[in-house]
Amino acid sequence: MEEQFSRTERMLGQARMERLRNSRVAVFGIGGVGGYAVEALARTGIGTLDLIDSDTVCASNLNRQIIALHSTVGMYKVDAAAARIHDICPETKVNVHRCFFLPETAGQFDFSQYDYVIDAIDTVKGKIEIVMQAQAAGTPVISCMGAGNKMDPTAFRIADIYETKVCPLARVMRTELRKRGVRSLKVVYSEELPWMPRNAQNTEDARVPGSNAFVPSAAGLILAGAVIRDLAGIV
Predict the structure, then answer these.
(1) How many structural domains is the chain composed of?
(2) Domain that holds residue 47
(3) Extended beta strands in 65-206, E state
(4) What's the distance, CA 118 to chain centroid?
(5) Can you give the three-state secondary structure of 88-102, one letter per residue?
(6) CA–CA gap between residue 89 and residue 47 (Å, rounded)
(7) Are 10 and 198 in contact, with CB atoms under 8 Å apart?
């Protein structure tokens, strides 16, 4: 066994590890959720990762994003994540896309190239387009629902979008996907009621979600775990 992945291979076996090495996973959104998902995928031995995000690291990311350090402030998030991945596993192939994913930019991506897609972005239009593109290509996709304004990392669940409850974003997604004839979508969602930001002075302030180090990270790790189990064929 290769020493770096020896503890993982003890659990999964050689054949499954080889399957992961030959897999290509696209992660849309390299923030508080997506950053942790990417790192977990790299540490588990996924061979090729596509990172999609147009944002740069800023000081307000330092409280929760694994790629956010004082040394990375100002860097593109995809570049910071790629450097971190290569330091963890130099053999991992990383494709970076400094792109804000929306229906208008969807043509830049061939979803049939991916073995799995993770949606960790915030915009409803973008999330829906990821789902539609992935399902049209026959590529498995998992989508993260709302992780902002939450305090309980144990409240996350994996379910079909039509079995979710409580989460406001999941409610919107259900409505929009039903209109488009999408019958099923695996999601990670929280059953915790959102907290109202304590310092919100007006409606505009309330639109900026609060966050912390332990809730988005939990969602990201759950996403990665679901992808690994599916790709490795673990029931």
Answers:
(1) 1
(2) 3-232
(3) 93-97, 116-119, 141-144, 156-160, 186-190
(4) 5
(5) HCCCCEEEEECCCCC
(6) 10
(7) no
